[in-house]
Specification:
By secondary structure, the chain is α/β, with parallel strands linked by helices. The protein is built from 14 helices and eight strands. The longest helix has 24 residues.
């Protein structure tokens, strides 16, 4: 399969590495002035992977688009709509798109596949690739399971079968709303996990896993998805990598907040909390964990972040008693 991976940061560079190693003809694209691209151009590697010589690295977007029958996008979620304006300047009517990224557009509350359809891409040409796993584990040969979902059943089956290997076992997703929302929302829970680590409250992570999944399930159902998707690979299945791993950006972001220190890498859970808060208000769904992250990250308090975090945890314990599986 001729594939172009647009975005050569952490996940983009890994995807190019992975697909090339499993027999595909891969182009890797990044903006010429982007640090991630420059590192790969100048050294042929980054802190995660060494690019195979068979991978064609380019900063020419037109070249990358024309090469591919399948275009994989792996960039920051909030930049997707603007990026699609650049992509659709070219003829992409016969291209399939795979989103290997997790998030919700803050300004609109749109899932990322919706951003593509609103940009003029047919829903039959769109798939998402999400699920657990860290690059550091994959490159060490440690396998995991992931999911590919699409409104087009034939497309998701073909992609999953083309991309599978002894390193990644793919499943066919059955609920695009739940798959996308679950993948995005797990990053919000990762921030809470980091806060718990920073406060020395690791014992609460079991409660976070159950209450977090239940919270996301309520939102999935309200948005027209299947609430059981909260317990699948895209969400609960990704908790180990997001809530416990030393490699989790979102968990580390939360831990650094408690220490009033700055975390300089992308933590998608921050804008996702803002987007989910809006969705909870729109659909009338109670999202206490999400709202706590929002208040910590965006609240107007002048208190140190450690105090904000402790106050947010205290407020959740002060909430009225409810049925465990309330709707």
């Amino acid at each position: 399969m001729k594939i172009s991976v647009l975005g050569c940061g952490r996940w983009g560079s890994f995807i190019a590495w992975y697909l090339c190693n499993h027999g595909h003809d891969v182009y890797s694209w990044g903006p010429e002035d982007d640090y991630s691209y420059q590192v790969l151009r100048d050294t042929g590697k980054n802190e995660y992977v060494e690019l195979d010589k068979r991978i064609h690295l380019t900063c020419d977007l037109k070249e990358a688009i024309e090469h591919a029958e399948t275009i994989i996008i792996s960039i920051s979620s909030q930049g997707l709509r603007g990026f699609m304006k650049r992509i659709t300047e070219h003829d992409v009517s016969q291209k399939n798109f795979v989103l290997c990224m997790k998030g919700i557009e803050v300004s609109t509350g749109c899932r990322l596949s919706e951003v593509l359809t609103q940009s003029g891409i047919s829903s039959d040409k769109i798939a998402v690739w999400v699920g657990p796993g860290h690059i550091q584990a994959f490159t060490a040969g440690i396998p995991n399971c992931m999911v590919i979902d699409s409104a087009n059943a034939e497309l998701k089956v073909r992609l999953a079968n083309e991309f599978k290997s002894d390193l990644i076992r793919f499943y066919y997703g059955e609920d695009l709303i739940g798959t996308e929302l679950g993948a995005a929302a797990k990053n919000v829970m990762g921030i809470i996990a980091g806060v718990l680590d920073g406060c020395g409250y690791q014992a609460l992570k079991g409660s976070l896993m159950t209450r977090g999944a239940r919270e996301v399930a309520r939102l999935m159902k309200a948005m027209g998805g299947n609430e059981l998707s909260a317990y699948g690979l895209a969400h609960l299945g990704d908790y180990e990598a997001t809530l416990f791993s030393e490699f989790s950006h979102n968990r580390m972001y939360g831990e650094m907040l408690v220490k009033d220190a700055k975390f300089n890498k992308l933590a998608e859970g921050v804008p996702t909390a803002a987007a989910m808060k809006k969705l909870g208000e729109k659909y009338g769904v109670d999202l206490p964990l999400t709202n706590a992250v929002y208040e910590i990250c965006y609240g107007e308090s002048n208190e140190p972040y450690r105090v904000r975090c402790l106050n947010a945890l205290a407020k959740m314990f002060e909430r009225e008693t409810k049925s465990e599986f309330y709707s």
